[in-house]
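Per your request, structure below.
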């Protein structure tokens, strides 16, 4: 069945994915300015453990008549980082945007197939798209902090949108900053603009914003492509720390990065999934000749 972009109807159901999420008008008003603390926050995120599977079944995606993703079957396993590699235009970013239903926001775009979070089809009828994006967070290629918001308010934005009680917001924000490896660098500066941070810090701020709502899955689309080597290393170290808390998929052009951070690597070419397997095997002894040619730099 084809899904066309449309307004999402919210349906009251017991399942946590389809349960009702407050809309912006129902969320509490912004909290008063955060109290600065000299102590490192005790992160509730530390109690999180990656337990959720994402499974794509016969996933197709289109931009008008352009068939960008062609029948992909792939799983993202908890406790592991899955890297998606392939040349530009192969469909890897489109594929991950289908997981949290960002693809359908593009005029003329559509998709078909199933995207399962455990046994729940995230694209099924009655599923609240806001709830999907709360459970499946995303970090984009270019850091995109909200330009008019402070560091604190950037991280708190999702919490306020989803109706988090005011008295929980400060602790959740501080915990997310700690989990993103940013707390020590911004402690005492939370009221400063998010745009005042460096590029690498802004990207970790966006990761903190995604983590604040405690997602089950984190999708990262070329998160280091615009960063210098030092900032890239910090993001890669962070990915290694976070994989025990959330299921992670990373789109990357960087073969060395995939080798450093990924447990599993999937190779896409011309919209198709060519091969998927343990990262070491994919880079040293792949089954498909096209994979060998790509990872050794013979094309792409």
């Amino acid at each position: 069945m084809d899904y066309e972009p449309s307004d999402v109807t919210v349906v009251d159901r017991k399942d946590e994915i389809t349960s009702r999420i407050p809309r912006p008008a129902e969320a509490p008003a912004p909290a008063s300015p955060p109290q600065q603390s000299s102590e490192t926050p005790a992160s509730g995120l530390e109690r999180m453990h990656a337990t959720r599977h994402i499974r794509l079944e016969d996933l197709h995606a289109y931009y008008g008549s352009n068939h960008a993703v062609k029948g992909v079957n792939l799983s993202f396993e908890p406790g592991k980082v899955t890297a998606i590699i392939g040349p530009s235009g192969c469909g890897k970013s489109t594929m991950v945007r289908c997981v949290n239903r960002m693809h359908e926001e593009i005029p003329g775009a559509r998709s078909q197939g199933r995207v399962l979070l455990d046994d729940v089809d995230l694209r099924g009828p009655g599923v609240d798209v806001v709830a999907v994006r709360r459970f499946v967070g995303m970090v984009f290629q270019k850091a995109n902090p909200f330009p008019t918001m402070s560091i604190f308010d950037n991280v708190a934005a999702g919490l306020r949108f989803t109706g988090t009680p005011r008295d929980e917001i400060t602790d959740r924000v501080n915990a997310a900053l700690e989990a993103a490896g940013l707390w020590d660098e911004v402690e005492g500066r939370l009221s400063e603009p998010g745009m005042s941070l460096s590029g690498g810090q802004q990207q970790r701020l966006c990761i903190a914003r995604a983590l604040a709502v405690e997602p089950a899955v984190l999708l990262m689309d070329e998160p280091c492509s615009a960063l210098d080597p030092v900032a890239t290393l910090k993001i890669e170290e962070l990915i290694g720390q976070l994989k025990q808390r959330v299921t992670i998929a990373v789109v990357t052009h960087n073969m060395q990065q995939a080798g450093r951070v990924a447990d599993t690597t999937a190779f896409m070419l011309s919209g198709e999934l060519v091969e998927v397997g343990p990262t070491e095997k994919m880079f040293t002894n792949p089954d498909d000749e096209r994979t060998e040619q790509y990872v050794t730099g013979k094309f792409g």
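Residues 1-48 have pLDDT under 50 and may be disordered.

Regards,
D.
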